[in-house]
Amino acid sequence: MSAGPLSEGEEKRPGHPRARAGGLDTPADAALLAAHCAGDPDAFDQLVRRHSRDLWAIALRTLGDPDDAADAVQEALVSAYRRATTFRGDAAVRTWLRRILVNACIDRIRYERVRPTVPWPERDLPSRRPEPAVEVATRMAVGKALARVPVEQRLAVVLVDVQGYSVAEAAAILEVPVGTVKSRCARGRARLAVLLGYLREES
Asked: What is the pTM of this model?
């Protein structure tokens, strides 16, 4: 069954039949990267516009600080720009870009000792909205707790639980087996549960 035309403004999501064929890119991303390698001065800018929002969200929720997140995204994009000819096409361009970003975030965490202060996303807060002061305190507490989760577990939790990637997609981005992502998520969630147990008691 063929897919109908995309409506105006509709994005090609990973699950859309035109967004992926056999787990690889549609011609769109791959063609843009190829055009960039061939000397097209605008192709890479189009890729940046298409993926920058998600890259920014991953960096911010991993590093916590907007300035550090911006630096990590910039470093990742510069690296991707320079390394475009090394792209082998064995994964989606979006996955390749996120791998580069994850490595940039890990470098910042390990070598610059960045500590996340990122607020937890809306959907992970209680459905009954607390008082603003309580909500801010909760978000700060979660951010501090997340900072105490080992970086490998933190990245898995951010990708799967915060950004909504499937375990298989997160495994491709992190370049680890699916079972490793599941294990890291489980350990990360367990650690967060212990660190944030007092919030449940107070509620």
From this structure: 0.69
